[in-house]
Design brief:
4 helices; six-stranded mixed beta sheet; globular; 152 residues; 6 strands; alpha+beta
Length: 152
Amino acid sequence: MEDVLSTLLTNSAAADNCDLFRFRAALSAAMKKGWSTAVCRYNDEIVHETLRLAGSGSRKRHILQLSRTEEYFAPTGEMTAPVTFLLIQPQNRNQETVEQIFHAERFQVVTGREGMLNGKSVRTLWIGRHTLPETVWGARPGERCTWKPAYA
């Protein structure tokens, strides 16, 4: 029994350092806070999905991931490129919930453009490791706006 507990403890420490596990934990935390998630597997779905989610009459908040998860992570779970999200939510909602969640999981959060569509706020976010090279970030070079919590 002691060996089993020791193995579980060792694996839990390794999981805490795995980018993919931390990413999934952050998405799970966002869903617990009322965000729904969707993935655009192909580029030609992005506009349709954005319009569909923004046009829905619901008060729900949506995280639209713009590519498949496996495009951002190596088979070892290490992040190889930032994940791009569109956040779609009613304009009167707290604007920084997702940023706070991913920041708490030790990811760098980069903000992009924000606009309005059908009365909903649509914002671009990139979630990545601070060690990723500048060339893999989707944000315009030199214009990368790294999000920091208000208390930092």
